[in-house]
Fold this sequence. Notes:
- The structure holds three protein chains of three kinds.
- Chain A contains eight helices and ten strands.
- By secondary structure, chain A is α/β, with parallel strands linked by helices.
- The longest helix of chain A has 16 residues, at 173-188.
- Chain A is globular.
- Chain B is built from 14 helices and no strands.
- Chain B is mainly alpha-helical.
- Chain B has helices spanning 4-28, 41-46, 50-65, 84-89, 110-115, 131-138, 170-179, 184-196, 201-214, 219-232, 236-253, 262-278, 282-295, 300-319.
- By secondary structure, chain C is mostly helical.
- Chain C has one domain.
- Chain C is 78% helix and 0% strand.
- Chain C has helices spanning 2-17, 20-36, 48-79, 83-87, 93-126, 132-159, 163-180, 184-189, 195-205, 215-219, 227-254.
- The chains are: A alpha/beta, B mainly alpha, C mainly alpha.
- Chains in contact: A-C, B-C.
- Chain B binds chain C through residues 64, 67-68, 72, 74-75, 108-109, 111-112, 114-115, 117-120, 130-132, 134-135, 140-142, 155-157, 164, 167-168, 170-172, 174, 194, 198, 200, 203, 207, and chain C through 38, 40-43, 45-49, 127-129, 180, 182-183, 185-187, 189, 203-204, 208, 210-214, 216-217, 219-223, 225-226, 229, 232-233.
Amino acid sequence: MATVINISDLRVEYPSRELGSKTTVAVDGLSLDVQQGQIFGFLGPNGAGKTTTMNVLLGFVEPTAGSATIFGVNVTDKSARQRLGYLPELTYYYKFLTPEELLRFYGKLFRIPKALLEKRIDEILGMVELQEARKRQIKTFSKGMQQRAGLAQALINDPDLLILDEPTSGLDPIGRMKVRQIIQRLKNEGKTILFSSHELGEVETICDRVCIIHRGTLREMGTVQDLVARHQCNLEQVFLRVVGYEGAAPHRPEGVTV
Amino acid sequence: MPPVRTNVLALGGLVTAAFSLACALQVAMPRDERDNEPFDLMQTLLGDSRRMFADHFFVKADAYFHSGFYPTIFDNRESFETAHMASDAGVVEEKNKGDEHSFLGQPLDVFDKFSRNFFPSVHTHMDEGGADEGHSHAGHDSGELKEGHFVGDGHDHGHEEVGKGVREILPWLKISASLDPSRVDTYTTTAYWLRSRLSKSDEAEQFLREGLRRNPRNPAILFELARIYREDRKDAARARNLFEAGIASWQKTEPAKKEPNVFLLHQLMSHLAQLEEDANNDLRAIELWEKVKQVAPDPAGPDLHLRDLRDKLAQKSGQQ
Amino acid sequence: MNNILAVSSVVMREMYRRKDFYVLLILTVLITLILGSVNLFNDSNIVRYLKEICLLLIWVSSLVIAITTSARQIPAERESRTIFPLLAKPISRTEVLLGKFLGCWLASGVALVCFYLFFGLISAARESGWPLGSYLQAVTLHWFMLAIVIAIALLGSLVFAAPSSNNTICFVVIAGILLIGRHLHKVAVGMEQPSRGILTVLYFLLPQLGWFDVRERITHNWPPLDAGPFLLALVYALVTASVFLFAASWVFNRKRLQ
């Protein structure tokens, strides 16, 4: 299997807001690979460095040290994003646009031919169940509909890699189920998905592999079954133990690259 | 949540209470003398500062008189201290100094020189044709200051329309008068251009009478009114009355002033003298020209009239 | 160029779906018509005061449209987080910025055409001639001046934290330059050092927006400008706008997006 994402010894520092301290280390020495066709769960408590890592992959933040590539292309090169789809957490799309106008705009950025783009818009709006609302401005949408519009924009270029940042956050159970169904469908189509979520039950059912990061460093990585077997508990308990809840020091099994 | 009817009743009660209190306070409040004056929006909004705006709009009218060729506060204004539209109308004595064509001075830098392409930089007067004519006679006005005023027959209006462009100064003069009714120049200047270039003596008279209501027996306004009767209506009797009323009013008010407006007295007397001369009231004319001589900056003019009149009288007595 | 045009089309769509432009146009029309209905000494041919007031309203409206539209572009993208899915596409930050600039500039141009058409109608209703050449020059110079204003507002939106403060600063600076910019050197000449030196340097550094204001010429029916100064002013506008856009692009590319 080909490597889709490669992160090697990544370090990201921010100017610190605290007095007496020049920098804050958001990510420290992170290395990981994501293989083609995998759904990779990216776990960690708030402030662990998940979003920063994703921001590096998307080219929003330049790494202080180390490197990251997508399909072998350095993430600082805009062509690295040609085969990528991204759904950010809690985004409000251009509220004066309709979903089809939004998709047409993003499609143009990928230089998709007009006829193909129109066909693709029809397909995606059908997939995310926004066909009937395609001519309504996004400002009239519910949160769930907005999130599905977001998923649609992430899929407009038929990406080989999807980066989903808490895609079900803030949705009601029906909304979550619909998003989960779409992710499952994408997995069946052979897409690679990097998936960040606090819903560990969801991660457990969807992801092939997961990693847990805490305070910018990688603490655990492997298949869900491996982690559960290694720690003799469910994924939620593994997570809590790794991030230092339950009073115990994080358990670091051998063979994990940090 | 209270029912809608309760809310409506409460709101109605509060509005009634507020209205009743306002009525009670209106009666109870001490009354100001100004309460009896008619409502003036500008006075209410701007107070006495409206006079400053009145000056601004008067100057604006003069800027229009020059089709926008006018000094800013950053330029040399010596040659524009007295508004040209007022001095050309003969309603004020011109006290300007310096060259009115070169208030901008030499360009200070390349930017300054280039910028002169983008605003009017040729001296024109609207009563002589204004910008419409200025450019056709000046070629193009790319930053060079041309000498003299441009006179011509506008490309837009036809020959009989020459000078009627001066109508464009009127809105600003009207605003200036409404902002400061005590500014007499505004009424007299407006009236002059209305009757002399636009043939609107009725409107000029109406505007002057409005000024007279606000400045009772003002000699300058009486002078302009008299000119309408003399020059436009050819009504010598009423013109005489008005000139005489103007002189009487001048003698009542001006001598006590630190700097009496002798220019105005000269205007009043010389026009009255000319009127009497035209009416063949030679003795009265001689009497008036003698008085004019005392206030004229140059006695040569009145002397000429006096000589002619005395010759005429001598001829008459010789014939008899 | 494809990406720049795509971004600009969204900005244009935003302008005609918002109410700002329509409100300003209606206000301008109403105020001008009310002033035009005033009886001035029974003379219905008086027009220049109306032209001046109409042009003043057009200038104020165009500055409001240009500054508020461009000043909110990038802050709004960041606030609603639409900047993230946008930059996750194969588009560079410079292209986003240029797209925003082009969109604002074209939108302002469309608005200007509407305003000047109304102005032309008012002028034609009372004047026998219709100096099309002068009007075209005026609208072109006005539009090119807005290019500088928009570039300044875009740079301001990246430098100042709050869009409201950027709006205020832009309005004060632009109005200051338009009112006293061209006189600064004269003022400097009458001053002592070091104020004289500072003011002179400021005079040469500030954009010469006064060159684009030919309202006096239009109001008083002066002939069109010669081609030389006219074209030189347009080139100056493009070069000056490029300077501000280059600075904005530099700031934007260095900005860490979180």
